[in-house]
Amino acid sequence: MVNSRVASTTAAVTAALVGAVVTATPPAAAAATLTVAADGTAQYRTVQAAINAAPANSSARTLITIKAGTYREVVRVPANKPAITLQGLGSTPAQTVLVFNNSATSHGTFNSASMFVDGRDFGATNLTISNDYVEKPGSEGNQAVALHLNADRAVFRNVRLLGDQDTFLVNEKTRAYMADSYVEGTVDFIFGGGTMVFERTTVHEKRTTGGPITAASTPATRKYGLLFYRCTVTATTNNTTQLGRPWRPAGQVLFRESTLTAAIRTAQPWIDMSTNSWKNARFSEYNNTGPGATKNSNRPQLPESQAADHTPQKYLAGNDGWNPR
User: Fold this and answer.
1) Second label for 308, Cα 20 to 30 Å away, from 144, 255, 280, 314?
2) Which DSSP state fits 308?
3) What does residue 22 show for φ and ψ, rounded to 5 degrees?
């Protein structure tokens, strides 16, 4: 899997990353803007009403601005509504909240989300997506998804994703990028078989007893799964949080150049899931720092020779050279 034409030095890796930023193209300007305000001062009172009004099967971007407030509704962006951007108008993402409280108890995990995104080229900025179902320790059906993402080329900037178990489902159709954001949960709260890059994002385990952050189900035929690049991992208590476990045997996860706080269970940050052994999964770390970034035989490190092949742009490029950075 290593490309012999790629230099293996740290200098080459840095150059590749810088080049990716320099050549990134800005997002296309919105062709239409729809407005939402729960108090009736905009075109629509709900986010879903604005999505329903967006043109179907359009290549032009639709910007939906959302006045600060709390919007308790299940939001669905269907596959025939591509190129939609949701933008919160509050001064912080905490001021515009899209929230619901379904759970796996009555809906099943995949259908419990507060937001479903199937439309390609989706964007979200300056808002919060939350599932505020209260986890019930010791009972079945604790899973409650905040965001079910099943769309190619989705971008999230300055967004908060809040939940407990299974906060964020990155489904197999997904290729996505998240930057300068915040994701919190308890168990397997970033999971699925899609390809996604998290950059400069804080990932927080909020349960006092800890738990695994990721549960990747990357298909064995897919090279890239989840990349955490220059992120920060925190938790409520120290030495309780695992980096992940394999939902399917070939799950792929890399924590790269990230700050791992004392939250991480340093002796064993990867664990098994059912009959899937973490040792057979594609789990690794590269140049992480912080008290949780120790090295031992239970912590596979990405070889220097493969570093240039595991940059954010390599994960995101696909067959079309997509570069949201």
Assistant:
1) 280
2) G
3) -65, -40
Give the domains, in start order, of the chain with CATH numbers: 10-30+97-317 (2.160.20.10)
Q: Which residues pair with 177 in a beta bridge?
A: 155, 197
| Residue 12 to residues 8, 17, 309, 311, Cα–Cα distance (Å) | 7, 9, 11, 11
Model pLDDT for residues 174-192, shown as the tens digit of each residue:
999 999 999 999 999 999 9
At 69-91, the pLDDT tens digits run 999 999 999 999 999 999 999 99
Asked about 166 being catalytic, the answer comes back as no
The two structure tokens encoding residue 278: 């973490």
Q: Which helix (H) or strand (E) holds 282?
A: strand 282-286
Which of the residues 118, 132, 188, 309 is marked catalytic? 188
Amino acid at 185: G
Query: What is the model's pLDDT at position 23?
Result: 30
